Amino acid sequence: MVENTESESRKLLVRLREAMAGDDAGQARLDKITQLIADSMGTEVCSIYLFRDEETLELCATEGLNRESVHQTRMRVGEGLVGRVARTGKVINTPDAPSARGFRYMPETGEERFSSFLGIPIQRLGEMMGVLVVQSKETRDYSADAVYALEVVAMVIAEMTELGAFVGEGSAMSPLHQHSVLLKGITGQEGAAEGHIWLHEPRVVVTNPFADDPHREFERLQEAVDELRVGVDKMLQVSGGNKEQAQVLETYRMFANSKGWMRRMEEDIARGLSAEAAVEKEQSLARGRMAQVQDAYLRERLSDLDDLSNRLLRILTGQGKDTGAELPENPILVARNIGPAELLEYGRKLKGVILEEGSVGSHAAIVARALAIPLVVRVGRITTEGLNGDHVLVDGDHGAVHLRPDDPVVSAFRDKIAMQAQAQERYTSIREKPAVTKDGQTVNLLMNAGLMADLPSLENSGAEGVGLFRTELQFLVRNQMPKRSELVVLYQRVMEAARGKRVVFRTLDIGSDKVLPYMKPQDEPNPALGWRAIRVGLDKPGVMRMQLQALIRAANGGPLTVMFPFVAQFEEYRQARQEVDKTIEREKRLGHVLPSSLEVGAMLETPSLGFAPLRFFEEVDFLSIGGNDLKQFFFAADRENERVRKRYDSLNVSFLSFIERIVERCDISGTPLSFCGEDAGRPIEAVCLAAMGIRTLSMRPASIGPVKSLLLRVDLAELRNIISDARHRGDQTVRPAVMEYLRGL
Ligand code: PEP
Ligand code: MG
């Protein structure tokens, strides 16, 4: 039976190929396909429904139903049996369609005469493209082999649809990947950008889904799998002791040696598919499963299989990562996910980044922010919807992506970019001006940095120094722990670029979401409250000492400022300070020149530190409020979790009152205080922080202009009164009152 069906499906595929090879226009091809499927399967009806838009399916060709209903009959996803196949991605096989759940009678097609129904999803790599249906009058249960044969055909149709085989004269069909789509995600980095898609991992295009000689195809598949195995074994050898990487590679190996996986692909080849089409069919199935699996571990394994299939496809088609294609003009990078090092390699060439996965706090997001490139994360379907070179608008402010936008959207967007450019010009004109408010208060504006790419901003932004240098970024973008000598060179370059301006080097702030690829990941129930930052530094002081040594040597007799992250109690600061003193002693003994001056500060990122003994405030050389962390602990709302994070406004009176209290304590003890969380770079938040008494703000370089521009216009004493009134009224947040004041300026 299998033999028979195999030859049937082979025959079907051969005929299909002939139909595709002719010069017919798109519609004629589709019509021919339905005819020959109905003929080969011995059914009265064969129809192809394709997506018109995200929600609507359209009958695009039929043999057996009313011809007039082609391009007229439409249904929503989920509606009727066809809609159900499209929604679930699952086959429906029923001998008695009219009594099946969800059956919808469509008089225009005359389909009530047909009893049996077999609906097969047309999908490619997890992307639903339509539904292939056969129907017949007799009450017939289609055999598993018939279903299988049609699945193969559906896959070929998907492939051909993707290649645009059905587009053309006479086809009223709206081809996929041509209409405009608005995709929603989450803001990773604000800003607007227009450009063209550059796929980080270009799709492999299977141009020839059919093959004449199955034996040749078996051989090709076998050779490719062998090559893949060798490659995976090699990667495993060089992965060293990295457990996570080894785990992924083990999964690769498991699949590469999996008999079931090979057998299924060989069966597909026996039925007339080319080796690459067989691989892609398996990959599609895995993607389909991935969409339905909830279990995180299983999802990851399926995603490993997906990567593995991509590698195999590249070997088979010879389409490497380097396709020889040039970056388009104004490239917008699109990827499922990307590591910080890879993103850095593209650097400032990119105009924007869109990630299908990713998160706001991911390392890639940190890099994108440092590079000031608009970034939208969690944009579902972008890697399947977007094609290389597609026109795209990235709206980082609203976390939205306009793919292949229509003209009105483009012009509105360009207006927005032009307005931003104008504003940027205004900011340039005030670059050299100090930020003095209407009531004569000076606010120092510093920048946050962490990458070499940030350094030119010290000149361009008008920053008076670096208020926060996140040293962990240099650790995160590497595959192995940097050496002390490398760090010395790096820190020297930073200090040189600063040309005497103060740079606050924050020691390694790892843990929580910042996991070094070469360090054993901690399995903690709550990493944000876990072993991170200074806690790691004090428990395992080796790296901290190395870093301190590197900083002292880089200072080379000049001034040095060091800051410890995430200090939660006085004692931690004391211990860290002792480490600094010991390192200074050691360096002295080794004959190294010592810094001309040394400041050792702490970040105030936990509420507990705000209530530390006054003695702490006296001992510490300076404090910087890490508002991002402080806020998440103050409100007990994870900074990475959009759902809870958004509930609590930074201008909430409790939070501002807490800031005010810290300011008061610093005033009493004479401790220099700054604020270096993201809020420092948001103009409205920044002026309110200034009104609470903060006189030093450290922010992304791109924010300095907008913040300064607003500071120049406000009267801090007035603003403070407005905030006090709102507090006395019992407002939850002072935002509405502040906004009203600002509008009146
Ligand atoms: C903060 O927590 O506010 C901060 C500046 O540090 P990071 O964002 O690197 O945790
Ligand atoms: Mg922090």
From TrEMBL:
GO CC term (a single one): cytoplasm
Subcellular location: Cytoplasm
Listed GO MF terms: kinase activity; metal ion binding; phosphoenolpyruvate-protein phosphotransferase activity
EC number in record: 2.7.3.9
Reaction equations catalysed: L-histidyl-[protein] + phosphoenolpyruvate = N(pros)-phospho-L-histidyl-[protein] + pyruvate
Residues annotated as domain GAF: 25-171
Cofactor(s) recorded in Swiss-Prot or TrEMBL: Mg(2+)
Main location, first listed in the record: cytoplasm
Cited InterPro entries: GAF (IPR003018), GAF-like_dom_sf (IPR029016), PEP-util_enz_mobile_dom (IPR008279), PEP-utilizing_PTS_enzyme (IPR050499), PEP_util_C (IPR000121), Phosphohistidine_dom_sf (IPR036637), PTS_EI-like (IPR006318), PTS_EIN (IPR008731)
Keywords carried by this UniProt record: Cytoplasm, Kinase, Magnesium, Metal-binding, Phosphotransferase system, Sugar transport, Transferase, Transport
One Pfam family this sequence matches: GAF
GO biological process, any: phosphoenolpyruvate-dependent sugar phosphotransferase system
Enzyme kind, highest EC tier: transferase
Family: Belongs to the PEP-utilizing enzyme family.
Protein name in UniProt: phosphoenolpyruvate--protein phosphotransferase
Gene name as annotated: ptsP
